[in-house]
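Lecture notes, unit on protein representations.

Consider one protein chain, 338 amino acids long.
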Amino acid sequence: MRLVVVGPGSLGQVFAAVLARAGHQVWLVGRADHVAALRQDGIRLVGADPLSLPVTTASEPAAGQIAVADGLGAGTPVDALLFMTKAHQLAAAAEPLRHLEPTAVLGMQNGMAKDDILADAFGTERVLGAVTVIAAARLDDGTVQVTQKGGTWVGPGFAPLTPARQAVAEAVVAALSASGYPAALREDMRAVEWAKAANALAAFGVGIATRASNPEIWATPAWVAAFQLLCREAIAVARAAEGIEVPDLPGFPVHTYAELSPEALFDRFGRKTPPDPAAPRHYASMVQDLLAGRRLEVDAVFGDVIRRARAAGVAVPALEFAWRLAQGFDAHAPGRPS
């Protein structure tokens, strides 16, 4: 298949590498400075999935190759666009690619706004539901450390799958599965997307307030209770706004997180011993951005869900508090325009 990965950050490089390794033609599209660095060094994954792949500057990659570019011409044949940018970068990343006519479009961003943005750019019928909890971070030397070969789920978006879009979804799932990344097709993708959003909102809210890694949060009963409070509010929004019951998923059983008492939640999922200080510290992606001085996904993640809560008449005071904290940190980010 001819697949375009948009956003050459850590997650984008992982997906491009995995899809090329499965034999697909892959374009990796990003800013000119990012493209120049990749042309020089190629893709270098370390950690849970060590891999080095060169890239090509050819206008069209061969099967199993990755071509890097800062844009694509109108005649570029594309089966699918996979957007890997941060949520607040998604609309700007989609705009210069509106001229393409992909069979399917997938967004792996945090939050619930992503599918609306992609539907506006490419049409409701092309959007697939997609979620990933693969964890990776770009290191100072340009390599990408894969810290968790987490799950990915793909399925219907706003419209039922056609055979062509089903084929795209199956190709993405097969490529990930073959590389040891758990992946599956799901019919209830909207509920899956809400599950990831609830988990992310909770992890981000506690993480930016404490600047703690995920293992540190789960080793602290009070922070686990705070995580649960945020998670419960997000689940209430899904139920009130869209009539969705959020499911458990492998790696983040969100429904169970919300149903247990805070004490039972820590007893079942909490770490009873402090994390090993020598082990790699896995931070939620928003915490990574905060610690690195980058812009945060404030409005596209917290703000969007809070607007849905207000429209549905659901009180979410803990999410509102976390949103305000995130807004304050984002206002002081070095990368924020003055």
